[in-house]
Design goal:
single chain, alpha/beta, 8-stranded mixed sheet, two-stranded antiparallel ribbon
Amino acid sequence: MDEAIESRQVTVPVDGEETAIRYLTGGSGPPLLFLHGIGLDAAAVSWRYALPALAEEYTVYALDLPGHGGSAKPRRTYTTDYYVDTLAAFVDELAIHGASVVGISMGGSVALGHALDGGDPEKLVLVDSYGLGADAYWRQSASVALRVPFADSMLWGTMGSRAAVRTSLRTMAGTELPDDLVDDVYEAVTPDTMRTLRSWQRHEFQADGLRTDYSDRLAEVDVPTLLVHGTDDPLLPVSWSERASQRLPNGQFYSAEGCGHWPPRERPERFNRAVADFL
């Protein structure tokens, strides 16, 4: 991580428990919050290049959500609502007012839930965001696989080497898979983060569809919102973001050409420029 970005820790009350949160911060100017995705991610993974670039004009904050990175990893049921509550507690504890929020994948749904729950962000940037549709092609098989006994230990067994991480990431990235992304994910993934991932997936991937779907509430989001989506995203349909940009009162769509599910790491300069131009 760039030397202009430093690591700090704060303890916040979430769901009746005091929870230690590690976060990265730096820069000066209006506040800008970053939210990473679930499981194979952390603040320093998705936002490695975005933080120092945008810290030139903003005070940036990127927290490790509980169960990830340097934050606490309590044994509990992890849900999108839990992470929305975590963000609210973090913002209150640090007295961050009027922040724009950038969220990728599950972090996008947390940013959107925060706005719908009275968080009052200045602007939103939703990147290959979860929470914009009721179902995806892989949901049925995933919901069945998650009920297999010992699924957590089986998953960790498939992620215990850089080669295994590279193989897994090839199912998420577009035409190019950066070597440093493989290294960062390998360093971030532990048995505890795999347990967090499985807990969240079990809650979200239901037999009749995806639990978190804000698509019917988008008219309530009256802040300017940029939806960025990789054209080659194999996980979440590009059509989700395109449709959401039309349903939002003040929505814009940016097509991340040649990117899979991780535009800020697959094309960091292009991504950072698009976000800076929007903000």
